[in-house]
User: Which sequence fits this backbone?
């Protein structure tokens, strides 16, 4: 049951540092740590053993599954899904003996994107709106809106509808078999048909 003063629910084992902002309807599960500077929107779910850093912004209706660390400089827009065990990095070339805190690079995950289980997102990139990162993929460059990517390094293997269905064509025009939405694809871009 949510605390009346906060309007979000947190499991008794969760650690929420003073100063963190968590929106109404959000659920924070077992052994989660939310740092003081984190900003989390409404109606989110943070699964077991999630870590949220100080300089992190999470939009509304975001789902972060178990065992995900969202490090400083990551922004997740509304409706993002982070699969279990996926990884964000914040430094390109980490070394234990060299401090790189002044070299953190921002990662932006745009609205409605999905990141599959055990995928890795190398910092400094943008994942486009409604993009779909396959399980285990390693993202080393920007991902266009609606792109379906897989592999190591991640490569585009198709296009996705905003409803989560794979579009039947690689180029030209296509209609989603799931919801009927129409799209136009040209080169490395895909968007709703005009």
Assistant:
């Amino acid at each position: 049951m949510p605390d009346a003063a906060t309007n979000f629910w947190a499991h008794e084992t969760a650690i929420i540092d003073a100063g963190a902002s968590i929106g109404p309807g959000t659920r924070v599960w077992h052994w989660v740590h939310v740092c003081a500077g984190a900003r989390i929107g409404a109606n989110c779910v943070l699964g077991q053993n999630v870590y949220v850093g100080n300089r992190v912004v999470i939009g509304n209706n975001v789902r972060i599954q178990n065992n995900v660390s969202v490090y400083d400089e990551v922004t997740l827009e509304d409706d993002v899904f982070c699969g279990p065990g996926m990884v964000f990095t914040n430094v390109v070339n980490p070394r234990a003996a060299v401090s790189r805190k002044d070299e953190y690079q921002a990662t932006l995950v745009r609205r409605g994107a999905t990141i599959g289980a055990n995928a890795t997102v190398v910092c400094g990139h943008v994942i486009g709106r409604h993009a779909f990162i396959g399980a285990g993929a390693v993202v080393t460059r920007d991902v266009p809106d609606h792109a379906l990517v897989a592999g190591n390094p991640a490569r585009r293997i198709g296009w996705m509808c905003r409803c989560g269905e794979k579009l039947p064509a690689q180029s030209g025009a296509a209609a989603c078999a799931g919801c009927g939405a129409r799209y136009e694809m040209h080169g490395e871009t895909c968007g709703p048909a005009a």
Remarks:
- The chain has one domain: 9-166.
